[in-house]
Every structure is written in C-alpha cells, then in structure tokens.
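Module 6 notes. Inverse folding takes a fixed backbone as the condition and produces residue identities as the prediction. Think of it as a translation problem where the source language is geometry and the target language is the twenty amino acids. Below is one complete input and output pair. Work through it position by position during the lab.
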C-alpha cells in the first residue's frame, strides 16, 4: 500500500491517498477539507480514485467528503453505523467551527467489524474501535503492515473522549483488543501528527500502559 499524506485544515488532519501498487487504484481516507489541494495531488500523481473511506464522523475528518464524492463520482464508505448521529449533527458541526452550515450527508455504505474493503487488489480489514466516537473504525492492511487509525491512537497519546458518546474505558479496550493485538512492526497512520508503530506505543504510550487515567 502506497501512502500520500496531506495535512488539511487548521486542525492539521492527515488526509491520505492510499494506492494499490498493482492496479494504481486509490482510496481517499478522511478528507477533512482543503478539497482543492487533495484534487491537485490526485491530478499530479494521476491517481484513479475508487472510493472515499471514513474512520469517523468528526468534521475535521469528513468535511471534504461530500464535495469529493460529487466531483469524482465515487462512494463514501464507512464508518460503522453507530456513528450516524455525528452525520445527523453535520450542520451543527459546521456552525461550531465557524463555517456556514452545510447540509448533512451520509455514507453510501456503513461498515461492520471484521469485514474487508477492497481498493484495487488490496484488502483492508475493518476493525470497529469505539471510544473516541461510537462508530469509529480503523483500516488494517496486513500485506504492507500498516493500519489507518483515525483518532483512536496517536504517537504517545490517545483520542479525546470528552465528546458526546465518547467513552474512555471503551477506547482503552479498543486499543488493547483491536490495535495492540497487531504485529508490533505494524506502522500506525494516525489522523493527526507523526506515524508510529504498534510496538513503540505498546511500550511507550503512557495513556494505555496505566501511567495516566
Ligand atoms: Zn475525531
């Protein structure tokens, strides 16, 4: 899996273009905004977009998804359906961040735990990781040892749980059961900040080792 990272919006959210090296087919993961920059990169790299994948429904991860769907004519896939209330709240999210409210949009398909999503010939395993948000999913690509985790896990930190329907103990359980069970060399592609690995976080992340809260 080839990965291009484009930090978007003032939140520096890591929008990503993930490409199947065999077919050149690409998915856009968490396009939070700055649609023009994402489209320019797709054009520069001459990528063939197959779908838009979403880890969760926060505006800084999905703000550009509706527009990209229209421009590119592709489906929005994920997250898991417990996330619906964040999509219902889209107009409120736009307003809260100081933008003119836009209409709500919804994914074309919700994802379930353990199902797989295809991008070209790549198969990504879906893992439901509630806690930061209830319908949060991560995408694991076994063959290239990479996992896209959205706002579940960061280098040295974890996702916030103070939003509506956030749950700190559920987040910890998701990390322990769905992420720390992956091979330690697995590269973690987070929604904000630097990449890390499962092994590094297992031994250094104070939020899940019990040093904090
Ligand atoms: Zn978030």
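Target side of the pair, the amino acids:
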């Amino acid at each position: 899996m080839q990965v291009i990272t484009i930090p978007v919006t003032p939140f520096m959210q890591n929008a990503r273009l993930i490409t199947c090296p065999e077919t050149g087919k690409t998915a856009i993961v968490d396009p939070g905004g700055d649609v023009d920059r994402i489209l320019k990169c797709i054009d520069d790299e001459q990528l063939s977009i197959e779908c838009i994948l979403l880890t969760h429904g926060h505006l800084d991860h999905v703000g550009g998804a509706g527009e990209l769907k229209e421009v590119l004519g592709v489906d929005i896939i994920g997250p898991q359906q417990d996330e619906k209330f964040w999509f219902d709240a889209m107009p409120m999210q736009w307003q809260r961040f100081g933008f003119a409210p836009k209409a709500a949009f919804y994914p074309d398909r919700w994802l379930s735990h353990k199902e797989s999503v295809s991008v070209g010939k790549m198969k990504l395993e879906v893992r439901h990781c509630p806690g930061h948000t209830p319908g949060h999913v991560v995408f694991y690509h076994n063959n290239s040892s990479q996992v896209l985790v959205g706002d579940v896990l960061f280098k040295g930190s974890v996702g916030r749980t103070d939003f509506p329907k956030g749950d700190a103990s559920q987040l910890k359980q998701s990390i322990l059961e769905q992420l720390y069970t992956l091979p330690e060399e697995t590269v973690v592609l987070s929604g904000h900040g630097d990449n890390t690995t499962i092994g590094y976080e297992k031994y250094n992340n104070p939020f899940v080792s019990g040093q904090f809260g």
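Reference fact for the lab report: Residues 187 and 197 are 4 Å apart (CA to CA).
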